[in-house]
Amino acid sequence: MPNFCAAPNCTRKSTQSDLAFFRFPRDPERCRIWVENCRRADLEAKTSDQLNKHYRLCAKHFDPAMVCKTSPYRTVLKDTAIPTIFDLTSHLRNPHTRHRKRIKELTEEDLKKIKERRLASSIEQLNTKKDAAVEDSTNTNEDEPQLSTEEKAYREYLRSLFEVLVMLGKQSIPLVADKVSEAEHMTNNFQAFLDYRMNAGDEALKKRFEATAVNTEYLSATQQSQLLDICENTVREEMLMEVRESRFFSLVTGDLVEFGNEKHLPLFLRFVNQQNVLREEFLDFMLFDGDESELVERLEAQLTDRCGLSMEDCRGQAHKATGTSTTKMKAVALLLLEKYPLALHMPCSHLALNIHLANNLPFPNVQVVMETLRRVGAFFRTPFTQDELENAVSTHYQKNEEKATALKQACSSRWTEQHNVFDVLLDILPSLLLCLDSIRDNNDGKFPEAATADAYSIAETLADFEIIVTIVILKNVLTFTRAFGRNLQGETLDVFFAANSLTAVLHSLNEVNDNIDVYHEFWYEEAVNVADVMDIPVKVPRLFLRKQRAADMGEIQEEAYFKEYVTIPVIHGIMQEVEDMFSETNLKALKCLSLVPAVMGQMKFNTTEENYADVYRNDLPNPDTLPAELHCWRIKWKHRGKEVRLPTTIHETLQLPDVKFFPNVNSFLKVLSTLPVLKLEDNTSDTASERLRVYLDSMPAKQWNKSLAMLNINTHVKHDLDVMVDKYCRLYPEDDTETEAEAEAEAEPEAEAEAEEVAEEDVMK
C-alpha cells in the first residue's frame, strides 16, 4: 500500500517518487511539534501512537542535513529532526478547490507561543551542539560501532577477496582453469590472483595467509560459495531497487543453460527507470525442473519472495524457448496469463518473428530444422569456416557473380537469426553442403577434429529430402508474416501499423489454407528441384515406411505424404500461433501506441486511444480524467509551432519536460514501453541476453558459474564493496567461518584415509 505525505499542499506518494517517507515520532513532545509545524488542525486531536501508525511526511519537508542515508537501501532521520519546509500558500491561488488537508489559521496568541517555543528550542539545540562538540573531541560518534584492530584487518581482507571476485566476473575468468593435459593439475584462478595481490603488497591478505600451511587453498569451497552469493545478491539488489521504483515490468526468459547437469532458465526484466529510459536487465537463473505448474510456482516465488516484486505489476511476458522446452514454456505462459491477465504473452523483440513462430511448432521435422540452424550459426563463428563458406559460394555460382556477391553479403553476419533466414538457407544450401564436405575432408588439415565431426553431422542432416521439404514449406508459409514481423521490430510507427495489418496477414494465411492443394503442388515441385541440384533422392522417411509396413497399410506417394504430414500441419500451426500471440488484448495494447505524437500526426490526429485504454485503466493515476487529458494531448501537438518536431518514439516522448503535466499519458507510455515486443532504444547488440550469450561462448560449459555470470552480465550495475563486506560480516561472523573452515580441513584427511582404505580392500580382493 503506498504512503501518502501528510503535509498540506503536498501530493507526493511512495509509488510515484523515490523519496523516503518518515513516520510521525512516538515521543509526544516531538510529535506535537511536527503537527504544529504542519499546521493541520485535524491532526491535533490524534494521539502520537495514532499519528505514528497512520501518517507520514516525505523527505522534502526536512532540512537535507537532517536526513541520513545509512546504506544504499536505508534512509533515516536524525533524532532531533523537525520538519520545517512547507507550502502553506499555494492553495490560496485556487480558493474554490476542496482541500482534504486543511491548513490551520494561526491567532496572535498561537504565533506568540510558537516563537517562545522556537526560541527555547534554539537555545537547547545550541547547548546540545556544544556538548556534542566536546564529546566528539574525546570520543568518536556513538552511532558508529568501534572496531578493533583485528576486526578492521578482517574487513580489509574481505574487501580484497570481493575485489578479486568482482574482477573475475567482469573479465569472464573462471574460478578454476581447465586441465591442459592429464599430467597437469587444475589451477585455481582465484587463489592465483590472491597470490598476485599479496606479491604486489596487499598487507591485509599477507597477514591473513602468512600462517597458512603450504599447498593448501586459502579459502574453502564453502567460503567461496558464500562470497559469491554475497556478490551476486548485492548486484541483483542494486538493480531491483530501480525495478521497484518503476513498479511496472515485463518478464523475458531465454534459452536453457546447464550448470552441473541441471538445466536453468535465464530470467530478464524490462522496466522504465527513473530517467524514463527503457532497460532490460538480467535477474537470475531459475531451476528448470518439474511440470508447468511447479515452474509457475517457482517463478512466482523467485519474483515475489526473493526479489520483492509483485506479479500484479507484470505487464508482459516473452519466452525464447527452443527444442523440447517450447511446449512447456507455452503452457507456463498460459498459466501466468490466467492468473495475471495483464501479463500479456508476446514475442520478444530480440528474436525475429518468423524464427519465433517456427520454434513454437511442436513437429519433429521442424524442430530438427531449427536445431540445425542454431548449429550452423554456431559452427560458422569458429575460425576459417566463414572463409570456406564464401569460397564454396563463389565456386557454386561462378557463372553468376552478382548472385554470389549477394549471398556472401547475406550470410556474412548472423544470417541464421534474420527474418528471411529460410530464403537465405534455400539459396545457400548447395554451397553450404559443398563447404561442409570440404571441411569434413580437411585436405589441408587446418580444421580440428571437432570441426570436421560437426561438419559431417550437419551435412548428413541437411542432405535429407524431408528436411528440404520442411525448409521449403517454412519459407513459403512464413513469407506472409515476414513483413509483419519486420515491422514489429521497427520504429514505433511501424509497430502501430503492424498491429493494424494483422487482419490482412491472417486473411492471406486463410487463403493459402483454403487452396492448400494448389499451393502444395508448387511448393513440392520447388523442393524436388532443390534436391535434384544436390543429387538428394526423393523419398518418404524410413521411419514412416517401417510403421506403414508394420500396420500393413498401402503404399503412399511422396507428394501425398509430405502434404499430409508437413504442409498442412505447418500452415495450421503458424495460423494458430499468430492468433494466440496477437490476441485482441495484445492488439489493443499495441494500438495505444497512437499516443506517440508522430503516430498521431500520421493519423491526422484522428486517433481514439480511449477506446483501447481500458486495458490499463487501473494503472493510471486519474483514469476518470483520461478522455479530457487525451483531448488536450492531441490539441497540444496538432497546434504546435512549425519548428516543433513530432517525437517519433516512446522514449523521445517521455523525455519531454512537459509530459509530466499529462500524468495519465505519462503513466500510459511507461507501461506500454515495457512490452517485450517493442525494441530497446539503445544499442541492441549490448543487451543483457547478448552479454549472457557472449559469456557462455567465452569458456567451456563445465567452467560456467551462475554467480560469475551474474557479475559479468551486470558489469554496468554499480556495486559497493563495503556493502558486500557488511553483509558478509552480518551473515557469516568470523568465528563461524573459521569453525567451518576447520571442519572442512579436518574432513579432508578423513576422506583421503577412507579412499585409501577402499583402494586397499579392492587390491586385496
Automatic annotation (TrEMBL):
Keywords in alphabetical order: DNA-binding, Metal-binding, Zinc, Zinc-finger
GO MF annotations in UniProt: DNA binding; zinc ion binding
Keyword Translocase belongs to the record: no
InterPro entries per record: IFN-induced_PKR_regulator, THAP_Znf
Pfam families cross-referenced by the UniProt entry: THAP
Domain THAP-type span(s) in chain numbering: 1-86
Annotated spans, Disordered: 735-765
Keyword rRNA-binding part of the UniProt annotation: no
Classification via PANTHER family: 52 KDA REPRESSOR OF THE INHIBITOR OF THE PROTEIN KINASE-LIKE PROTEIN-RELATED (PTHR46289), 52 KDA REPRESSOR OF THE INHIBITOR OF THE PROTEIN KINASE-RELATED (PTHR46289:SF13)
Designated name of the protein: 52 kDa repressor of the inhibitor of the protein kinase
